[in-house]
Design brief:
The longest helix is centred in the N-terminal third of the chain and has 21 residues, at 76-96. This protein has two domains: 2-176 and 247-260, no CATH class; 189-243, no CATH class. By secondary structure, the chain is mostly helical. The strands form three sheets. Strands 5-6-7 form a three-stranded mixed sheet. Strand 3 and strand 4 form a beta hairpin. The protein has helices at residues 2-11, 29-38, 46-51, 54-64, 68-71, 76-96, 129-141, 170-182, 202-205, 207-211, 217-222, 230-235, 255-260, and strands spanning 39-40, 43-44, 120-122, 125-127, 189-191, 196-199, 240-243.
């Protein structure tokens, strides 16, 4: 496995892969069709995804054939949009291929085994979801809002959008994800009486990324905090930060919800 990961890392260093003919569909249209058909309010119809696997597989095959020389010529937003979509789409396929299951943590024997599966194919290389996030996306793009976009198939994650990330709209989409996530009171809330800011564990796991943008977690979330409690948070003096419980159960759509909407 180390040999594969080393090869993937080397592919991101100066140099490049041999350029291939053609161009990648920056509208991510195949992935858009997958998301529109299976995702609603952040929940995924994995049963439908398993019943019709072709479109997702074809999209990931498209990404796998993008040469580094072509990728390097894209704008930074186009690059990041592809990598975010790649992470989320590979996670969908990882779950789909093992569905039904209760949690992504049910995959494998050792803790975190799902993130160490060699499933990510890009530029002729293969790597893990963990490597894609922590060795490619985070250090190369240094964008804290990615943590509101990467979805690990758990209900504790930010909601999966029913549209792909697009370079042309990436800033707008990430801002919307940030607002949505901060508005989820089961994950993030402010207790004015206790002067305690409760945040998702995501803010603990990736605290260094958020603090690279703002001096404190409270300051990072303030501008997009829900309007009804924003004045209280703004007036708080050094609020204590505590972390809510992370829900690792699968972000699956209940069968009843699929029945009501006719499978959509």
């Amino acid at each position: 496995m180390k040999r594969f990961l080393f090869a993937f890392l080397m592919a991101w260093m100066p140099g490049g892969w041999v350029s291939l003919a053609g161009g990648f569909d920056q509208s991510h249209s195949r992935y858009a069709r997958v998301l529109q058909a299976t995702v609603n309010a952040g929940r995924v119809d994995y049963a439908a995804l398993k019943a019709s696997p072709g479109e997702l597989d074809a999209y990931l095959e498209e990404i796998a054939t993008v040469p580094r020389s072509e990728f390097d010529q894209w704008s930074r937003p186009d690059q990041l949009a592809l990598l975010l979509n790649l992470y989320n789409a590979e996670t969908l396929r990882l779950i789909r291929d093992r569905y039904p299951l209760k949690s992504i943590r049910s995959i494998g024997v050792l803790p975190g085994a799902a993130w160490r599966q060699l499933v990510v194919r890009f530029g002729g290389q293969i790597a893990t979801l963990d490597f894609l996030e922590n060795q490619v996306i985070r250090p190369n793009y240094r964008e804290p809002d990615i943590h509101f976009a990467l979805v690990c198939a758990a209900r504790g994650c930010p909601p999966l959008r029913s549209e792909p990330y697009l370079g042309s709209r990436l800033s707008e989409q990430l801002a919307d994800q940030r607002r949505q996530f901060l508005g989820m009171t089961d994950k993030n809330r402010f207790d004015a009486r206790e002067n305690t800011l409760w945040l998702s564990p995501i803010f603990r796991w990736y605290e260094s990324d958020f603090l690279a943008a703002k001096p404190s977690l409270a300051e990072f979330v303030l501008s997009d905090w829900p309007a009804e409690s924003r004045p209280e948070l703004a007036a708080a003096v050094k609020p204590r930060v505590r972390f809510t419980e992370y829900d690792w159960s699968l972000n699956d759509r209940p069968a009843a919800a699929r029945d009501v909407t006719g499978g959509k």
